[in-house]
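W.,

You were right to be curious about this one. When I first looked at the sequence I had no strong expectations either way, so I just let the prediction run and decided to look at it fresh. Below is the sequence, 139 residues in total, followed by the output.
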Amino acid sequence: MANNIKQIYKDMNQKDNRVLNAHVDAGKVFQRYQQLFKMLKKKDGKFTSTWKSWLNEKVKACRSYVYRHIQMYELCNQYPGLHELNTSYTQLFSMKGKIKRVFLSNTTLADEWLYVVRVGQFFATTYTTKFLDSGFATL
């Protein structure tokens, strides 16, 4: 488990931050390993340390780095249209709070991002424009 997380951590540090889907996929894997860690700790008592200290000791990864990826996975999993935006992981992460606020205050817009049918570049162009026009760029 530690070796797999180390490799993902290393890969994400080396990738251009524009590869949004790779970062979101890493968050999905990080979340699964976090759940596995908690299950094994509770069930078998296999781990005596916390997730945070285990990451630091065994993976040499910062918990906040892993957690940010998990947060982005959860956000993009909730609103699949975010996967299609022509933006970097860093830019999307910096707008995470704004995205949540706008979606909470505008459920019609949020619903459009919930049930997305991906249709390639047309989708990305149309929804990126709609996304920016909806006020995210000015928040």
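Here's what jumped out at me. The longest helix spans residues 20-44. And, maybe more interesting for your project: The mean pLDDT is 78.

Coffee later to discuss?

I.
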